[in-house]
Specification:
binds zinc ion, eight-stranded mixed sheet, binds nicotinamide-adenine-dinucleotide
């Protein structure tokens, strides 16, 4: 990972495959899209995948940046919402791309949050057995998490993200000024993943969030650039060492075993993913304390930070504990009666442990 500091603009290199790719982070970097795409020559028809919400906000800026470089692009609008992260929507993208003359040298641009990114990414992984993908993430979650690392996919009735492919992008343009239009709730949900990076690998980031929680909530531009850069750098470091999630990458699941269970028992409607992860992180930290993996007080420190960031930290009493425990049993990370669980040893350092599923019941 190489981070080049330049006033309010940063570049993080992600060293995967032969050449790797760069993530450009900063306020206004969206205007560079045309130049970035031009650099991918030889260039076939460019296909932009987005949704009506994001298109209304940033579609014109994207089109004019591309037009400035002489690139005419086909915009494919997909419906807005997690419920549309399906094979049907994927077909819609394929058909729109094919009927607008896409070929093997086409580039698919994902303009939007994680849903758009996962769909456009899967389309890029499979159209002609793989065309190039360029990520333009516009939610905090997509900027710090889903736009880097190459995981793509769709949901099935059986569960989330069950069908997909690994397909790394050719570049990422994370324009922090797009975060200004996010709803408070979506923005804060993204912050939960930021807190997660602090807990698992970056104590300085955690300290920064504690110290500057008000500026973070106020979406201070300079601070956002720093935060997004740090998170992408951490994700890059993890993905470089474990692209296919054989080990280290699982650390990114801190708080997610319980978080996924919370999402599942509430039918994926009551909480945003980040909110469920926030509660899951506190539960995981409490369990870590019970296991003696960390000293007591770590869980309440995480809890205080989440509360300062206006995220839910305690699992509300009306969620049935038994159904949560059952839901944990269906999580992907389970083998037999054991669960691979990410425990915190201290802020900035987590490890994976195989623990008894019964222990989770006590922690809940
Ligand atoms: N591939 C990965 O590695 C990875 C990692 C984490 C999450 N994900 C996936 O990401 C998805 C969640 O992503 P998300 O949280 O970005 O949700 P999302 O894509 O649904 O976006 C949330 C909402 O914000 C809107 N929006 C997007 N950008 C906006 C902006 N700048 N201003 C105003 N509104 C904007 C969207 O239209 C949507 O309504 C899930 O499907 C999850 O599985 C993937
Ligand atoms: Zn997550």
């Amino acid at each position: 990972v190489k981070a080049v500091a330049a006033s309010a603009r940063r570049v993080v290199h992600v060293a995967v495959d032969e050449s790797g790719y760069d993530a450009h982070i900063g306020a206004g970097v969206l205007a560079e899209l045309g130049t970035r795409i031009m650099a991918l020559a030889p260039l076939g028809p460019v296909v932009i995948v987005t949704n009506p919400t994001v298109r209304a906000l940033y579609g014109a800026a994207v089109e004019s940046s591309l037009a400035g470089c002489g690139i005419g692009a086909r915009i494919v609008e997909i419906p807005d919402g997690e419920q549309y992260k399906t094979l049907e929507t994927l077909e819609l993208i394929f058909d729109a791309a094919l009927s607008s003359g896409a070929d093997r040298s086409s580039v698919i641009v994902a303009l939007g949050g994680g849903v758009v990114g996962d769909l456009a990414g899967f389309a890029a992984a499979s159209l002609f057995r793989g065309v190039r993908l360029y990520m333009v993430p516009t939610t905090l979650l997509a900027q710090v998490d889903s736009s880097v690392g190459g995981k793509t996919g769709v949901n099935r009735p059986h569960g989330k993200n069950l069908v997909g492919a690994f397909h790394q992008p050719r570049g990422v343009l994370a324009d922090t000024s797009t975060l200004a239009t996010l709803s408070d709730r979506e923005y804060r949900a993204g912050l939960a993943e930021v807190v997660k990076y602090g807990v698992i690998l970056d104590k300085d980031l955690f300290d920064l969030l504690e110290r500057e929680s008000e500026r973070v909530l106020a979406r201070d531009e300079a601070l956002l650039v720093e935060i997004v850069e740090r998170c992408i750098a951490i994700k890059a470091r993890v993905v470089e060492r474990d692209e296919r999630e054989a080990g280290l990458r699982r650390l990114l699941n801190f708080g997610h075993t319980v978080g996924h269970a919370i999402e599942k028992v509430t039918g994926y409607t009551r909480f945003l993913h980040g909110e469920a992860v926030a509660m899951g992180m506190v539960a995981a930290a409490k369990l870590s304390e019970q296991l003696g993996a960390c000293e007591s007080g770590v869980a309440s420190r995480i809890e205080r930070l989440l509360q300062a960031l206006e995220l839910p930290a305690t699992i509300s009493g009306d969620l049935g504990r038994q159904s949560l425990v059952d839901a944990v049993a269906f999580d992907k990370k389970v083998s037999g009666d054991k669960v691979i669980f990410v425990v915190v040893e201290r802020i900035g350092h987590c490890v994976q442990r195989e623990i008894d599923r019964g222990l989770i019941a006590t922690a809940l």
